[in-house]
User: Fold ABC transporter permease from Bifidobacterium xylocopae.
Amino acid sequence: MGGFKALRTKDLVNVGIYSALYFICMGIAEGATTLLTGLLLPGFTSIFVPCVVGLLAGPVYMLLCRKVPRFGALTIMGVLMGLFFLVSGHFALAFIPYALCGLLADLVETVLAAADPGRRVLRDVSYVVFTFGSLGPVLPLWFMKNAYVASLLKRGKSQDYIDTLFSHISAPTLLACVALTLLGALAGALIGDRIVARHFSGQAGRG
Assistant:
């Protein structure tokens, strides 16, 4: 079991590689969701993006867990994803959820999973926890509207853009966003489990 052993240079390289792949999944998810919702459901992009991220990134996450069976890998990836939000112009506090969810997912995967030799269920739980970090850029839409609007204006966004963005922000859509994120993450975990089982069934799992 990898557990709390220190990350090696090879581990850090793998974390970098899989973080880059996860970042690509995020980019594809945002691009595809923006295109589809722009055509079919204008104003709903932010509600669906975390769900699609969860759906697409499962295999990357599961493979990272296989390749780097040590505490810290998921935390680092969460911090890197949060930094991506920070440097790409998202709301400043968007960094916090991914960093926090990365740490919590790492604890679930490394500590709690030690009690489960098969680890599939708890690994899926850790992926769901990690995926909720992708809510970082959208939660301020509901909880920090004034500050979020100010940040958009500072970035040069038009009032029409802002009005469209907030046109469907309500308590029901918050619940829908959380529910969709959960479903997307569960589906992504299932897909990731199957891919790993198919191609790595003869190898030892994380730990």
Remarks:
- Residues 9-137+171-200 form one domain.
- The mean pLDDT is 86.
- The CA atoms of residues 43 and 164 lie 5 Å apart.
- The chain has one domain: 9-137+171-200.
